[in-house]
């Protein structure tokens, strides 16, 4: 989520905090889940991400954005219960995102063939994701962890950064 959140919100991650709730008894002993990740972005937005990999109803990815006058939900699931859903659901990321992966690769191939720049994220964006992940790993042990972002090199013009 450290890559998509800055893209959706138009701002880099400034700090990360990880909170643990009561442990899921279905998780392996070494894994503390579910977790709540709280990101503060440079533009002041707060983002919360809830994660649990040992749920047993489906592969679920949803996004909810709360605005001043509305709420938008992407991938909002219907009622779920153990082993049951109100609609057909995905069981892994490979089926959930297969069309998106195909489109992404095709756009890259098309850009290379045309000799043009590939749109979307670049190496600087990947570096920012790595820095946010590093802060997230530190945050697993507790406390709010700052993301230490150096000044963007001139090579990466803001218009090409994609984030």
Strand content: 15-25%
Task: Catalogue the unreliable spans.
Answer: none
Q: What is the CATH architecture assignment?
A: 2-Layer Sandwich
Structural class: alpha+beta
In short:
This protein is α+β, with helices and mostly antiparallel strands. It has helices at residues 4-9, 93-96, 98-114, 123-139, 158-161, and strands spanning 13-20, 35-41, 46-51, 63-66, 71-74, 80-81, 84-85, 145-146.
Structure, explained:
The protein has helices spanning about 5-10, 95, 100-115, 125-140, 160, and strands spanning about 15-20, 35-40, 45-50, 65, 70-75, 80, 85, 145. With about 160 residues, the chain is of the alpha+beta class. The protein has one domain: 2-Layer Sandwich (Dihydrodipicolinate Reductase, domain 2), CATH 3.30.360.10. It has a four-stranded antiparallel β-sheet with strand order 3-2-1-8. Strands 4-5 form a two-stranded antiparallel sheet. A two-stranded antiparallel sheet has the order 6-7. Strand 6 (about 80) and strand 7 form a beta hairpin. The longest helix is centred in the middle third of the chain and has 17 residues, at about 100-115. The chain is globular. About 10% of the residues are buried. The model has no long low-confidence stretch (mean pLDDT about 85).
Helices and strands, with pairings:
Layout: H1 4-9, E1 13-20, E2 35-41, E3 46-51, E4 63-66, E5 71-74, E6 80-81, E7 84-85, H2 93-96, H3 98-114, H4 123-139, E8 145-146, H5 158-161
Antiparallel strand pairs: 1-2, 1-8, 2-3, 4-5, 6-7
